[in-house]
Amino acid sequence: MAGSADRPLGTWDEGALEFAGLSRVRLDALLQELLARVDEIMDSQERLRALLDAVVGIGTDLDLTSTLDRIVTAACELAGSRYGALGVVGHDGKRLVRFITHGVTEEEIAAIGPYPEGHGILGLLIEYPEPIRLTDLAEHPSSFGFPPNHPPMKSFLGVPIRTRDHAFGNLYLTEKAGGAAFTEDDERTVSALAAAAGVVIDNARLYADTERRRRWHEVTAEITQLMLGEFDPEDALQLIARRAREVSGSAVGALMLVEDNELVIVAVDGPPAFQAHLGRHLPSDLPIIGDALAGDQQIVVEELAELIKELGGVTDAPELESLGRAIIAPLPPGTRSTGGLLVVAAERGALHEVTVGADLVRMFAIQATLALERVQAQQDRSTLAVLEDRDRIARDLHDLVIQRLFATGLQLQGMHRMVRPDVQERIGRAVNDIDTTIRDLRAAIFELHHQPDQSSLRADVQALVADYAEPLGFRPQLTCTGPLDSAVPTAVRPQILAAIRESLSNVVRHAQATEVAVEVAVTAHEVIARVADNGIGMDSTTTNRQSGLRNLRERAEALGGAVQLSANDPHGTVLELRAPLTASAD
């Protein structure tokens, strides 16, 4: 106590004051640190709240295009970035096929030029899908620089977006507010947003695919309903091309059918500029086209415009340069269809709904084949109805009309000797008219039995004789007897026509005839073609012209027949060709 009493009072006060000063400094530091921690917590909470708001915002609807726009906007707001973009990676995983921007006006985009395809820093993020954060873009060795009219950009943050195990695209952010660099917190926040965006994008694509399939079922019912009744094939094929384009989200849809080893575009749906290609013929042996026709699987083309250029395609159609990803689906073989292709193509840079609906495109190709088969069935049914009606008419003509005419002719002939000579002459003319009518009816019956889709010798002879009416100055008399179209061999038909043509040509040039009779008759064993005229006859010059018939004689002999040139009574010339009904092409 004494010692304490002896200590000077000033010494104790100075130590306490010094301790109190040090405690106050440390307390201030602690308070500042505490306030900083509180600010960080508040900032983190604010950032977390903003992130949650952004995640909720990007999933407000399932339209893929608007979803991508909202993702870019949300990323820029979270990281405080002036410019942002979302690049969609193509299915080849090597380049960008679409670029959604934020912070750049339409005028600036037009001045910059085409969107990037994934070179430089953008390509680095495609090749190595890991977050990239740079203070200065220009200092990175992979930097390619900027094109003219591009706004200046320094700081950079790139984050990949994945949907399941697939790299959908990348988020690119530049120019953080205040000229600062992007922080690690920015990277974590944007990466979290990208993870949520991948789920939202996947849901949007699944929803779009579900909607397409629902729409496809509606369209299938529509097309099926059309084909259940009578329909125009052109309208049906046009409807299939239109619905295939709509359901696949494409810009153009086209149907092509094989005709004479060529592809003919029979239906086109899309912008008016593409309608000019309707009816265009394309080679069917082009590399990609030939592969599609030969196989049973559709072929996906990444850039249809580039393929057309490589194949040396249409050069007078600038609208084709706008076509990007396309699907070429072969029409499955039918019982009578000749084959073809269904093509749908999207615009360059468009989202790939066309790829998701690839199986739907093939289903539309099946619909096209069904439509063609249905049309053929309708035509066959109509043809069968016509043929049945013709058979009925032919039977009625043969069993009723001809028999009655024949009986009437017999009755007239029985009365011939019972009447005066002048009446006999009139009866004779009437009988001859009846015989002519019977021959005409028999010819009509044979015509009725002829099927429209088969070649007709009778029709060919009639057309050939009609062609010589003008050069002769009169129409030759034509008589056709027997089943020309069913009994005459195919190898003999050209010789029949050649003999008639050769004879009529000689009559025009040399005979000076006023009447010509052409007769083609089928007997039990042979076919006979005879051309008789009443011209100047077979004089010495006509005999010399027989060398022109040498080829005709040789061909007739090859068929086992013969050609004979003789004089007509009382004057003129007769050319006659005979050929057996058993003649063959050999």
From TrEMBL:
The keyword Transferase applies. It comes from the Bacteria. GO terms for molecular function: phosphorelay sensor kinase activity; protein dimerization activity. Residues 491-583 form the Histidine kinase/HSP90-like ATPase domain. Residues 63-211, 232-382 form the GAF domain. Keywords: Kinase, Transferase, Two-component regulatory system. It holds the Pfam family HisKA_3. The keyword DNA-binding does not apply. One of its GO terms (cellular component) is membrane. Gene3D superfamilies: 1.20.5.1930, 3.30.450.40, Histidine kinase-like ATPase, C-terminal domain. This is Histidine kinase. It comes from Kribbella steppae.
